[in-house]
Amino acid sequence: MRAIVIRFAPRSGARSALAALRRHPCECPGRHPRTATITLGGMDKSFNLKRLDVKAFAQAGEDATGTTPLADFPRLAEESVRPAPAQPVHWRLHGELRHTAAGDAQPWLLAEASTRLPLQCQRCLEPVDTPIETHQWFRFVATEEQAEQEDELADEDVLALDGPLNMQQVIEDDMLLALPEVPLHDNCQPPAALQQETEGFAEAGSTRRNPFAQLAGLRGGPARGGENAD
Ligand SMILES: [Zn+2]
């Protein structure tokens, strides 16, 4: 199970694990493939990120790494302030079988991903280049009921194993969860127009007039008790 807090907590383990994925820093426009590239351990060529045979992948203790263009993650791409369809999303999957106390073998899957996106800085409204990294373990059980029950108590995400799994979607979900709630530059100023507006507000606040004086003004002169101004 994943608590909401996890998405903003630093994941130190992810950094080192992802270092191997990031062979170059992705700031080299035009040099990335527009289609996914995938490297497998010992598995056959039938590997499909959108239809992963989790059980076979885990049984084989398989590893797969790949690079998929941002265009293939449409919900994540929408978060970018500039269109960047070729921006590479690096990912890595690792599968293994682990035995429960009762002796049953359960498939486990580690999914990691990293990319950089220009998000909108919530202070100056300009793009802020934001690294996005994910590192999430998944454990697979037989039924939805079991998954729901066990997910409550588990650190990992517990999913029901029900046919091929769309890992591209799972990776996208993870990255959406890893987005900063409030993207900000380390150092920036609000835009000039916004600054003036804010100053204007402050001025209006400090010279706020007495409502009775204002009412008197409307009646054509200074307030004079109950007297009619006419
Ligand atoms: Zn900013």
How does the SSE layout of this entry go?
Elements: H1 12-19, E1 37-40, H2 54-59, E2 63-69, H3 74-77, E3 88-99, E4 105-120, E5 127-141, H4 144-151, E6 157-160, H5 167-178, H6 192-206, H7 211-218
Parallel strand pairs: 5-6
Antiparallel strand pairs: 1-2, 2-3, 3-4, 4-5
Keywords: Ribosome biogenesis
Function: Plays a role in synthesis, processing and/or stability of 23S rRNA.
Region (Disordered): 195-230
Structural account:
There is one protein chain. The chain is an alpha+beta fold. The chain has two domains: 4-178, no CATH class; 190-225. The chain is 27% helix and 25% strand. The radius of gyration is 27 Å and the shape is elongated. Bound molecules: zinc ion. Zinc ion binds at residues 121, 123-124, 126, 128, 185, 188. Belongs to the DUF177 domain family. InterPro entries: YceD (IPR003772), YceD_bac (IPR039255). Residues 195-230 are annotated as: Disordered.
| Ligands (ions, cofactors included) | zinc ion
Q: Tell me the strand order in the biggest sheet.
A: 1-2-3-4-5-6
Distance between the termini: 75 Å
Backbone structural class: alpha+beta
The number of strands is 6
Number of domains: 2
Number of DSSP helices?
A: 7
Largest sheet: 6 strands, mixed
Mean of pLDDT: 78
Low-confidence parts lasting 5 or more residues at pLDDT below 50?
3-33, 205-209, 221-230
Share in helix: 25-40%
Tell me the fraction of residues in β-strands, as a range: 25-35%
The value of Rg in angstroms is 27 Å
Query: What best-fitting shape do the alpha-carbon axes yield?
Result: elongated
SSE string, helices as H and strands as E: HEHEHEEEHEHHH
Q: What would you call the quaternary organization? A: single chain
Keywords: Ribosome biogenesis
Family: Belongs to the DUF177 domain family.
InterPro entries: YceD (IPR003772), YceD_bac (IPR039255)
Region (Disordered): 195-230
